[in-house]
Amino acid sequence: MATHSDTSLLRQRFRGYLPVVIDVETAGFNAATDALLEICAITTQMDEQGYLQPATTMHFHIMPFEGANLEKEALEFIGMPDPYSPLRGAVSEAEALKEIYKQIRKEQKDAGCQRAIIVAHNAQFDHSFIKAASERAKLKRVPFHPFATFDTATLSGLAYGQTVLAKACKVAGMEFDANEAHSALYDTKKTAELFCGIVNKWKDLGGWPLADNTQNN
Fold this sequence. Notes:
Low-confidence stretches: 1-5, 211-217
Radius of gyration: 18 Å
Helix content: 40-55%
Largest sheet: 5 strands, mixed
Order of helices and strands: HEEEHHEHEHHHH
Structural class: alpha/beta
Mean pLDDT: 92
Oligomer: single chain
């Protein structure tokens, strides 16, 4: 019989998937043509009581791939006038993704999960850029599910009646600094906090009967 301290707790909660919170900043909306400029990924873990929390944070500035399109409006929106500035300390898509995927696979294995799954706010957007960058880098061992995601815009719409990240965080009782928004690092941290909060609130409300679930497996 499994207990609340069972190391397989996270695996059981999400059907064998390890949730990884992602945010990207880009030079446009087209994943096939527009540059990926920044990425942050935060893994998740569960404590012995079954509460979800952020684990490892990985953050990279990305150099535009060769031939990438850079929309002026997009660069102004994210406050990045020169994506080629050496002050950014940017690395290639391949370097960033290899490091992120390596850590995800390690934590996925440690948790006994079969695969990772992307968690993001309006997740289809982030997923499309991750997929396109992985293809350009010719990375065959991508840890994420190829099409399924957890979308916090949808989840927060259900939980809090808000789909905008800043507004959902406010209703959830979280601080949100608009001046820090549109930074992949900050947005990923807030999305991870929001996602974990929703999952844990659902648990407290009895929406996921932990004891019954673990005993039946």
